[in-house]
Give the backbone structure.
Amino acid sequence: ANWVYGFGFNEAEEHEIDRDRLGGKGASLAEMARMGLPVPPGLTVVSDVCLYFYEHGKTFPDGLKDEVAEGLKKVEQATGKLFGRSKHPLLLSVRSGSRVSMPGMMDTVLNLGLNDETVQLLAEDTGDARFAWDSYRRFIQMYSDVALGLDQEFFEELLEERLSELGHAYETQLTAGQLEDIVASYKELLEEELGEAFPQDPYEQLWGAISAVFSSWTSARATTYRALHNIPFEWGTAVNIQAMVFGNLGNDSATGVAFTRNPSTGEKALYGEFLVNAQGEDVVAGIRTPQSVTEPGRIASGGEKPSLEKLMPDAFRELDTVSARLERHYGDMQDMEFTIERGRLYMLQTRSGKRAAGAAMKIAMDMADEGLITREEAIIRVDPATLDQMLHPTIKPGYKGTQIGSGLPASPGAVTGEIVFTAEEAISAHAEGRKVILVRTETSPEDIHGMTAAIGVLTTRGGMTSHAAVVARGMGVPCVTGAGNMRVDRFANILHGLNGTMLHPGDTVTIDGATGRVMKGAAPTQKPALSGDFQRLMEWADDVRRMKVRTNADTPGDARAAREFGAEGIGLCRTEHMFFEGGRIRMMRRMILAETEEGRRQALDQLLPMQRADFEELFAIMHGLPVTIRLLDPPLHEFLPKTAGEVEDVAEALGMETDALRHRLDALYEFNPMLGHRGCRLAISYPEIAEMQARAIFEAAIAAARATGEPVVPEIMVPLVSLRAELEYVKGRIDAVAHAVMEESGMEISYLVGTMVELPRAALRAHEIAETAAFFSLGTNDLTQTTFGLSRDDAPGFLGTYQKKGIIERDPFISLDFDGVGELMRLATERGRQTKPNLQVGICGEHGGDPVSIRFCEGLALDYVSCSPFRVPTARLAAAQATI
Ligand code: ADP
Ligand code: MG
Ligand code: MG
């Protein structure tokens, strides 16, 4: 095989452009050259050589030197210059470039080939001594850093010193003579530090640079980057050796970067920055403020400077044409690097440009409209995870402020408010019309009130699926969880943050639930507008997706929001949340604390109308769409007081002896509530609870049917089933209530009784359970907990360590564990459908809103995914992508 491929010669290049071997940069240079665009000629040493290099003690394969020498000859012919001593010295750049772009991770050397002799020749050839000496200076600095291991800082320091001695502010003010002196000092510095002279032989320089580029593949920063982005070592990097062109040959020369469209807004217009009389990295380095490519010539610091359009209209026009051609050729927005040498434009790189979420959507839709890409391609181009962010405000990009903590981005949205430490304070502050952020070590179901009253939630413990996170996402309340660098001191009433900050109740903070940032004071935020593009993209996605998208909604507010975002029903309504509202918690407690069935029934009778009203409202909002209601699931003690103070308050409110209450609490205490008396187990111990809920559902369904004329088919879901007999027992009770309600009302009601599949046994025995169940809903939160035997409330503490040590890649509570939990889902679906081919199967765990997990669900041919309201658009798009 060839080790080396040329580009930019006049002769036709006939080889396949193999991106994997040439690397992204090499492939783009070959492609642009083939399109006839102005690319300085050069060679690409393929990435296979990189592997060889590592497998053979950092040596090169036989024949490589010859291939490079041969290629260089063609570069010399094409440029009319010679590498080494010559009247027209050829200088080279040696550039890394792997299959995927790793910005700034690996090394590049410019101006290679300069030495004490060629610098003079270059000065004569170009008639610009200042330029020649400045190029040599840059070369020594870069080469020493990259190939000899002497940090640039040594040189920068020396340069700074000289500049201040000479009274210059910028290096552009240095004269040729001064630069010559600096070069001499650079060389002395190098000898002092490394004990060797700067290599004068251009070929030694060339092979030193090639080795250095290959070596940079395993540098610390590249290794970290590769690990983060799952880039295998085996891909290696290619090396591009290219004739230099000079943006620093005076005021008709320049260098810059440009995008074919605006990467932050998506606007269809060339967008870029450049510097006059500059080279390569000057634009990125930020020493001088770059100028705008297009008019108006606005610059970063706020002023105006002439644009490229004004300064060099011919080169600009050519860049504009090239830009349009490249975009059409690649069918995507491009990020280009260019240099103008004495008025002539050269293209040095092009690749797909990174863009902000909103821009990605606009660009995809525009390009589909322009016929550049198909609708399906447009659907694929938008990252579903970013839609969620687009629905919420964020902290203004670029705002620095004082960061006082950081945690997990649990529920997007940026909000500013006063901090409070208890749900009660949140409620009373809310009543006074104050905006508060509820700060807790972690939240429990009792905090729900407080969470509804708060505009944001911050916890110092807990993960992405902790109680606070799930509830906040469900409510669309911005939330940051697990801010481990902050600490709540409940005794002193202080929130400790980074750098010793201390905040008291009433102090203002801003949290950004999309990034996990916690800022002191009020940070400026920006609210997104749902563009027409957004709506249109959703429609296109709806046209191609197969799975339905439902929502997890517990309250009318959730349901309404979800409808707006396009939910096609409710996949999970968690009824327990309804019992924390207003005065209900008191009735609930009375029910739980009752010693007899009769006592319980009395309390339940009072809860019935409230529960019925909840369902009536939900049914009205969902207007005939399916609504899945889960019977009471959590262990009862979650509704009971915990601290001594709370126990006393509750005892008083209920007119009980404190001791008697304590006694009852002891009786309800469980070692392991997650695996304890909850779910259908409650309905079996206390069927009257399930009966009350069923009655509320049926009566509401009748009322809704009468009111709207649209029959609702409620889907009643029994949680935590592992035995068919459990489901049968509870279903028997529900059927009896249905029968009674139909008799009383004289109206027929259709309804379904189904179950969550959230325990491994249920998945394994799905064929049996499906005989009783009318539907399955895969409850992947609990299924993940029980499959791993891992409590999701305790897991965040050590799962982070697991990820760091490479034991797991992703948190299984966020992204499905396909191999284990997924296998059980597959079994449950297949076995259930063996019994009932048309068995409706959906997913209602947090994974229902995770794009990768949604793709997996499409593979199982699930009927729907259900997710929190703000994730509905994400799920619609992800479900569409899963079918393409
Ligand atoms: P990175 O991958 O970090 O962007 P590059 O290999 O693209 O590194 O090189 C960085 C910069 O060096 C380029 O943007 C360009 O300005 C300059 N450069 C690279 N090769 C040449 C060349 N042949 N002529 C002029 N400038 C070059
Ligand atoms: Mg580059
Ligand atoms: Mg569950």
About this structure: Residues 597-622 form the longest helix (26 residues). Residues 40, 93, 95, 104, 108, 110, 242-245, 255, 280-281, 337, 339, 348-349 surround adenosine-5'-diphosphate (ligand 1) (CB under 6 Å). The two ends are 36 Å apart (CA to CA). The mean pLDDT is 92.
